[in-house]
Design a protein that fits this description.
With 244 residues, the protein is of the alpha/beta class. It has helices at 64-71, 91-95, 105-114, 151-160, 174-179, 208-217, and strands at 19-21, 24-26, 29-30, 33-35, 54-58, 75-80, 119-122, 136-142, 162-171, 186-188, 204-206, 222-225, 229-230, 236-243. It has six helices and 14 strands. It is globular, with a radius of gyration of 18 Å.
Length: 244
């Protein structure tokens, strides 16, 4: 089949259903994502212009943030693992996994539809280093740390490949944030919305102070927390800018 013509042309095309990210794909096409970050895209602290910069999107999945960094002018590399089964699952959740869905096909389709030049590479955040991917002026990492067994190591690796600034976003624990402002506390687990322990691969819900201090422990010279915000259909979030 001709690759140039084997692309969705209708908003109802089933290939646009069931995505993680809602992405504008051009020609009136929009992926049907579980989360729509477009209304809050300017709440993360990403510089409006990245012209002449290199950027890395860590944990890109369908690619929303990689394409946003590119839209702002950066030359972008995006990394992710190959399949859902490569997540940090606890043993009971891993045993209950269904089909080992890939994390690449939607990105590839979006890249073709958008005419993007983002380079996607298979790489775990645990393998992230100047040797494996190089270094970048700007590094973005959204909604990754809460799913990791070792978020500190992830931040250390992110710092190693950051030349100027990293933007780290994660879910916020509203109770800790409101009752104990300024405390570097972390809530463990997601039992309130899990039927089976670990099924959502969600372990750490941070306070803003906790995320900021973790980044400083990882080697960032300074951190700048952004005002908290709510992702439509998703959690209240915190975003912290780390400077080298």
């Amino acid at each position: 089949m001709n690759e140039a013509t084997d692309l969705p042309t209708s908003p109802d095309d089933p290939r646009l259903q069931g995505w993680y990210h809602t992405i504008d794909l051009g020609n009136g096409l929009v992926s049907k994502g579980a989360y729509d970050h477009r209304p809050v895209v300017d709440r993360y602290g990403i510089p409006e212009s990245l012209a002449g910069k290199t950027a890395l999107d860590v944990g890109t999945f369908d690619g929303f943030w990689a394409f946003e960094l590119e839209r702002r002018g950066a030359a972008v590399t995006a990394i992710d693992i190959a399949r859902i089964g490569d997540f940090d699952w606890v043993p009971s959740a891993r045993a209950a996994l269904g089909p080992n869905a890939d994390r690449q096909s939607n990105f590839s389709l979006a890249k073709r539809l958008r005419g993007s030049r983002v380079e996607r590479r298979l790489c775990s955040v645990y393998d992230l280093s100047p040797t494996t991917v190089g270094t970048f002026d700007v590094v973005f990492c959204g909604d990754v740390l809460l799913h990791l067994f070792n978020p500190i190591q992830a931040l250390i690796n992110i710092r190693r490949v950051t030349r100027e600034v990293a933007i780290i976003q994660s879910s916020l624990h509203e109770g800790i944030e409101s009752l104990h402002p300024g405390m570097p506390w972390i809530h463990f687990g997601a039992r309130d919305f899990e039927k089976t322990l670990g099924e959502h691969c969600t372990y750490w819900i941070f306070s803003t102070k906790a995320l900021s201090e973790m980044m400083e422990y990882a080697g960032f010279a300074s951190t700048e927390p952004q005002p908290t915000f709510k992702i439509p259909g998703g959690p209240v979030s915190t975003s912290v800018i780390g400077r080298v």
